[in-house]
User: What shape does this take?
Amino acid sequence: METVLQPGAPRFSEEETGPTPRTHCFHCETPCATTAFRKEEKSFCCHGCLTVFEILTENGLTDFYKLSANAGVRVKVSEQADEFAFLDEPTVRQRLVNFSDDRTSRITLHLPAIHCIACVWLLEHLFRLKEGIGQSVVNFPRKEISISFENEKLKLSEVVALLASLGYEPDLKFSDLEKLKHPVSRRLWLQLGIAGFAFGNIMLFSISSYFGLDVEHFKKLFGYLSFALALPVFFYSASDYWKSAWQSLRRRMLTIEVPIAAGIVALFAQSAYEVCSGRGEGYFDSLAGLLFFLLCGKLFQQKTYDRLAFDRDYKSFFPLSVTRKTAESEERVSLSQLEVGNYLLIRHGELIPADARVTQGVALIDYSFVTGESEPVEKQPGDHLFAGGRQIGAAIEVETVKAVSQSYLTSLWSQESFRKEKSETLDTLTNVYSQRFTKIVMVIAIGAALFWWFFDSSRAVKAFTSVLIVACPCALALAAPFALGTAQRVLARRNIFLKTPSVIETLAKVDAIVFDKTGTLTAAGAGSIAFAGAPLTPTEENALVSLSRQSTHPNSARIAELLSHRTAEPVRSFVENTGCGIEGLVGGTEILMGSALWLQTRGVNVPAISASGSTVHIATNQIYRGCFILASAVRAEIGAMLNKLSEHYELTLLSGDNEREREQFSALFGTSSQLYFNHGPQRKFEFVGDLQSAGKTVMMVGDGLNDAGAFKQSAVGVAVVENISAFSPASDVIMSASMVPHLHETLRFSKGAVRIVKLSFLVSSLYNVIGLSIAASGKLSPIICAILMPLSSITVVAFACGMTAWLGKRTFGSSSQVETPVRPKGNQSLLTSAATTMREAA
Amino acid sequence: MIVIFLLIPLSIVIAACFLGAFIWAVRSGQYEDTCTPSMRVLLDEEQKADSQFSNENKHEHSN
Assistant: This one.
C-alpha cells in the first residue's frame, strides 16, 4: 500500500491536448484549465486530484464520490518531500500528540477542508489507505480528526503527509502547539445533569405539599430526602458560581454572580433550617430548578461560543515551520528554534518570519499584510526585509537579523493597548443592571427584616431570606446570554461571526466607522482588467495566456485568468525578470510583458499612459502592442451602503495605498467624510486612538494583518474576508465580503438586540416586584417560589430568543439562508492554484 | 400507604441508574460531538464491518 502514495508518474498523454469544451474536475469540481489529466473517461484539473482518484480507486474507496456531489477537495501538490519532517522532532511531536505509549499514538488535528459527509467517510477509512493507522474519528462541527497510529509503522509526519496528499492538509499553526487540550464542556454537562436529576426527583417529593396533601411522617422523610438530593447540587453544580462570586467580591465588584450566589446560599440555609427543625420541607425544589435553568443558559452560551470560536492570537498568522539552510543541507525547523543569523530559504508565497536581510536572489515582497500596499516591493541582496512580508516569485535566501519575538510586527502587536484586555466584564449591560439590582435588593431585604423586627420578630429572618431567594436574578442572568447569543447565531447564519455575544453591545454603541480600502471596499484580485490598444487577435491572446501562465506574479495570474478561454501553447526560452516582466517565444513570436520602464530598456517605444491602477505593457517582436490596465474594483452596492451609513455615523477612509484612486472614493464617501491615504499600520493605530480620545466609539473595518493594531485599538474590529476558512485576522467580528453592503443592517440589528435585552430586564423585574411584595410580607411559601422562579426564567428566555429571531428576520429579510457558507477548499488562493496547474502542465 | 417505603427507594435507584448512564455518556465524550454520529449512521454496512476489522487489526498488533 505504501507505494500508492508515492506520487507516481501522471498517466496522461500529450496528444489529448487540444481545443476542448470546458470540463470540470471529476475530483474537486473546479473547471479544468487543461485536458492533460484524464483517466477512465474522467477529467482532472491537476496531478494532485488525479492521484487522489487513483489512490481511492486502487483501495476500493470510490464510494467517496457517490456520497456527495462535491466531495473532493482540491489538492495542493507539495513541493518538498520532507515538508512535514519537522513534526518528528521530539519537542514538536510531544506537544502535538494527545497520547503516546510504546506502541500507539493519538493525535487530534484541525482539517479546515472537511466539508461534507464524504469527507467523514473517507477520513474514517484512512486505515484502508495506509498500514499502521488504527481508528480515525472525525468531529465534523469542529473540523477535527482524531487519529491513532502505530509508532513502529508510521511517523507523525507520514500521517500528516497522507492527509495532505488527500487534500486535507492540517491547519498546523503555532497556537496548536501552545493550546492546552481541555475537555470542552464535560464539567458543565455533568453539573447540568446532576441539577436536572435533583430537580426532577425533589419535585416528585414536593408534589404532595404543592397540593396541600401533607402527611406528617412523610413530610419529614421527604424533607430529608430532598435535602440529601440538594447537597450535590449545592456543592457541585453551583460550584462555579461560588468561585466567580468570590472573585468579584475580592475585586470589589458586584457582578451578576454575587446576588445569584447570595440567593442560593439564602435558599439553601433557609431550607436546611426548616427541614432540620421540622418546620417544613424548605425550597430545595426551587434551588435545584434554579441551578438547572441557570446552567442551561450557560450551556447555550458555551455552545454558541464553541461554534464560533476563533483565534485572536497573532501568532497564527505565521507559518509553523521555515526552511533553514545549513552548510551542507536544508532542514525544516519550527519558528521557536529560529535564531538570529540563521539562513532561511523563502519560497514563493511564504511569509518572512522575522526581520531579515536578503542574501541571495531578488526579493519581491508583498507587504499587504503590513502596510496595506497591494503592490509588491522589490528588494536587492543586502536589503532589509520586515517580518510579515510575503515573497512572490522565485525563491530567495535571507539571513534573520532579529528574533521572532522582537521583530516589527510583534512590537506593533505588543504595544500597550494590545496587552490591556478590553474591559469587557465591567461595563456589560448585565453587570450595570446587576450592580443597581443588588443594591436595591439588599435595601429591601434589610428594610423588610427591620420592619418585622419591630412588629413580629419571628418573621424577621424569614422575610430577609425570602427577599434574597425571590430576588435571585436568574432571569436577569439569562436575558443577555439568550438574546445576544441568538443575535450571534442570526448573524453567523449570514456569515458575520462575532467573537463574543457582548460584541453586539459594543456594536450598538458605535458612532464612528473607519474603513480600510484594499480588500475591504475593493475586492482583492477581482478588479476590472482592460486592454488599451488595438484589439488583440486570437493568436496573440493565445500567446499572451501561454506566457502569463508561466509566471506566478499576481498581475500575470489575473491576465491568465482573463484570457483563460484561450489555449496555452508551448513557450520557449522563458525568462522572468523579477520586478520587471516576463519574456518568451511563443510560436516564433517574441513577446515581452512588463513594466513600461523595462520595455523601454529593451528598446521598445512605450507611449505615456495615465490610468488608475497597475499597468502591464505588451510588445511583440519589439513592437509595442498596448497595455493591460488592472484596476481594483469597488465592491457592489458599497455606494448605497456608505450613503445610508453617513446619515448616522462619522465615516473615515484610511488606506495604506497611494492616492491614485482618491477621486473615485471621495465621490463614494460624500463630502462629510474624511479620506486619508498612505496610512501604514502605525498611523492607522494612532488615528483610531485619536478618535477614541475624542470620545468616539470606533468601529474599524479592514481586511488584513496590517489592521491588527487598529483593530485592537478600536472598540470593534471588523475583518472582511473573501473566504471564511482562509483567513481570520485578530478582530472582534469576521465578516464575509458579501455582507459588507449590509453593514448598516447589521448595526441596526445590534441596536435592536440590545433593546430586547433591556426589555427582558423589564419583564424580569415585573416578576421580581410581585415576588418581592410577597417575600417582604414574610409569607413566601414553597409553592409560590416553585411557580414564580421557573416561570420568570422561561418567559424571559422565550421572550429574548423569540424577539431576537423575529428582529433578525425583519432586518435581513426572511430568506435566512441567503449565503451558503463558503466552501473551504484549503487555503489556496487563486494565485497558487494557477501556479500549481501551470507547473503541472509545463 | 406503607408501599411508599418500597416505591421511594425504587424510584431513586432507577433514577440513579439513569444518572449513572448520563455520567458515563458524558465521560466517554458522547456530548462533545452531537453532529458527526448523525452522519456516520448513514454510512452503515461497510462501516461496521470495517471498524470491526480495524479493531481486530489493532488487537492483533497489541498482542
